[in-house]
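queue> holo job accepted (pyridoxal-5'-phosphate)
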Amino acid sequence: MGGKKSDPANWRQSTRLVRGGTERSAFGETSEGLFLTSGYVYESAEEAEQAFKGEKQRYMYSRYANPTVTMFEKRLALLEGAETCVSTATGMAAVFAALASQLKAGDRVVSSRALFGSCLYIIAEQLPKFGIETVLVDGIDLEEWKAALSTETQCVFLETPSNPVLEIIDIQAVSDLAHEAGAKIIVDNVFATPILQRPLELGADIVMYSATKHIDGQGRTLGGAILTNDTDFIENDLTPFFRHTGPSLSPFNAWVMLKGLETLDIRVQRHCENAHAVAGFLSNRKEITRVNYPGNKDHPQHDLAMAQMGDGGTMVSFDIDGGKEAAFRFLNALGLIDIANNLGDAKSLATHPATTTHQRLSPEERADLNITEGLVRLSVGLEDAEDIKEDLDRALTALGK
Ligand SMILES: Cc1ncc(COP(=O)(O)O)c(C=O)c1O
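queue> job finished
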């Protein structure tokens, strides 16, 4: 199979998504090989010894590395512009590994308060059990970040846009403050996707994903990823933690996600177009008191969203007049859009955060985060925007306002 090799470093985004990381086996397969194997055989006892001593780099055991998983990691790293990607079994495994691998008793973490429920659990409930101090701030208030980061800190964590009210945090400004406090900053980039937002270019040290969302994009598999250029963190913290605690991504899921990455840019573009159409439609409805969409000009951080993400994203949330009772009637009247708490799927999915993703919070905590009883979160899918709007129209009209 002759010909001069094209250099991946020169590839543009779509080419990276389709071809990045591909490593063909001796069979010369077109599509990426799926290596469903937990272990690997050695030519000799000496080779096994060399591998375990670290004198020979090769596949040893799929908890450490697997060829299909490596292809996925290389492709995602190429897209993100990161030196290293470590993939995980779920997004939550990525969050926990990124934090727990580098923190110890007596350390301090500062985080935005508006987080996905399980991230909040790790930061506010699990880490303190290990003797780690955690401080929560209002992510859009730079004065709160400044005050919290006036004390030496080891880790900063944030999610932007936030789930479910889609607030935008200034990654560059918080990164600068984090570094002054001696902290590494981790950005949960799930809602923005690697297509719209590149936290590493904005000063972040570590980016993580639930690959379950847009990267798979068709609601099939669970997965996560941690990306960074910080070799000290990878070598001394993450790699030993990962190898010995085992949150590894399955080769099958990695294969599904490799195929997901091939179309990620096209899908995200279409998700955004549909989200714009839906947000504009909802803004004119009398049944709705507030629409949260960073792409709308009336969003409080619209300019920051445009500078940081270049588009409004794939998610819209909105307050239905009439609280929980009206929100439930609306959800139950939907005929096309599904009621489901996942997001980033080809199918449009709607959820009621107060009783699902954020039901663990107290009513006061929810009020603090603007998660009202009437709030509905919509992951805008890839259906025809007219069909999505017609379904929303039908369900809103059924409220009889
Ligand atoms: C922002 C955010 N972070 C992390 C996660 C966790 O990902 P996973 O469900 O793949 O563990 C999710 C979704 O569940 C999420 O929405």
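queue> The pocket of pyridoxal-5'-phosphate is lined by residues 90-92, 95, 116, 118-119, 159, 163, 188, 190-191, 210, 212, 222, 224 (CB under 6 Å).
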